[in-house]
Amino acid sequence: MTERTGVFAGDDPFEIARNWLAAAEQSEVNDPNAIALSTVDAEGLPNARMVLLKDIEDAGFVFYTNYGSAKGREIAAAGRAAFVWHAKSLRRQIRVRGLTEIEDGEQADAYFASRSLKSRLGAWASAQSSPLESRAALMAKVAKVTAEKGVNPPRPPFWGGIRIRPLEIEFWADGAYRLHDRFVWRRDATDGVWSVERLSP
């Protein structure tokens, strides 16, 4: 493997990513786990939006969403997604591209239960990405759901996790005179062996 030192050191890209996120949690003002998630629609037109990365596992990156949302539908159709995580305070970023899978089991149930009650009720009330008549109409739906679901609503069947199993992870750190350091990890399959190479800035 390409020799790497400092913040790039290590033989596990997921551990490196966890270390970078932990460092950002000490320096970023808001949402250190925010990522810009990219998908493509049926015509191949890209979409991007900010979501919160909730877990860096030993083999993937997990976020949660309404499966009926634009991103949920596009991921279901394409089976792949990409994201970039940027820590402005650290002058670092991580780019990920990979294959997707649904996480709608106990792990999703546990995360949903950990959210605030209002967030759980909001997940039931919002038909994410669909047209909405007014804010008042949304709040009326929230009131209706609150009356129906009570204080311990279960996870909606249309809401859960999406796991990105990467085929490519790039770590980037700012360098003097724009001579940045970039290392890309690549593999041919989600259970394959990683190769690492340095990229020109």
UniProtKB/TrEMBL annotation:
Its EC number is 1.4.3.5. Substrate binds at K54, Y111, R115, S119, R178, L179, H180. It comes from the Bacteria. Binds 1 FMN per subunit. Its cofactor is FMN. Belongs to the pyridoxamine 5'-phosphate oxidase family. This is Pyridoxine/pyridoxamine 5'-phosphate oxidase. It comes from Roseivivax jejudonensis. The lineage of its organism: Bacteria, Pseudomonadati, Pseudomonadota, Alphaproteobacteria, Rhodobacterales. The gene is pdxH.
